[in-house]
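Justification of computing resources. Each target in the renewal requires a structure prediction run like the one illustrated here; the chain below, 336 residues long, is used simply to show the kind of job we budget for.
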Amino acid sequence: MTTTDTGLETTAGRDGAADAADLGLIHDVADRLMAAMTSVIEGKPDVVRTTVTVLFAGGHLLIEDVPGVGKTMLAKTLAKSIDATVRRIQFTPDLLPSDVTGVSIFNQDARRFEFRPGAIFANVVVGDEINRASPKTQSALLESMEERQVTVDGTTYTLQAPFIVMATQNPIEMEGTYPLPEAQRDRFMARISMGYPSAGAELDLLESHGATSPLDGLTPVTDAETINRVLQAVAHVHASPAVRQYIVDLVARSRSTSALRLGASPRAGLHLLRAARAYAALEGRDHVIPDDVQVLAGPVLAHRLMPSSETQLARRTTADVVTDLLRQVPVPPAAR
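Resulting structure tokens:
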């Protein structure tokens, strides 16, 4: 047995060992998930596809946008589409770290301390408005998101796979928000924005959501065991040395450009590779191509970067900088 970069153990094999059965499983589960989610999330197929990509890559997703555009609905829809344990955490200024991780309580009858798990002990954790909690409480997620474990009073408890945190946040300009620490932003594989729906999609929204919520009639289309099998299959999607070099070149370029004060971390490169493997599998391929990397570079890299003063004065976003990096960094000929 070997440990994949998703944190799961799988049978040993060369990179690129994903076969037709693996791709068939991934494609079947993805189709069912996306069909279920698009029945609730109107007019956002790209957002739904990115969400499923992050799930299949074994990552965590940050959904950032203004209030009322369906951030929480997206997270709840994915959670309800999977027959797995689901917990929701409503982040508020008075939320304590122990509410997230759990706490040891003394049992008078047994005369010993007993651990009571917090809300983080679930397959799918929906963190609503994560940046309304204090930085101390936000930091309670750091160990669980990176190492899939929680340490309380010197004892470590392992979280069950699959494990995904889907957190929503409002822009930092909104009242009562705290900016997420850089270390926590870096643990999210991707950040997406919902955006406002088109006029037609909004009209359909009024029709479908006006009386009852479509979420009420949604039933699970897959389960935790199947998602674990998908994670193992995705880990075997082939990424050639040239594609991996392209990812390294992109990440390295972000650290040397004058447009940024802080470039992408090595973890960012790992997340980009894992996401590209999942995206390639969703496209029905057993190998990653540069187009996969380019599609995901914005969602995976932009939220980790810190713009320079000049970039901020020019009113340019880190997503704009990522677009520049994609133009500047050549694709290795062998990766085409």
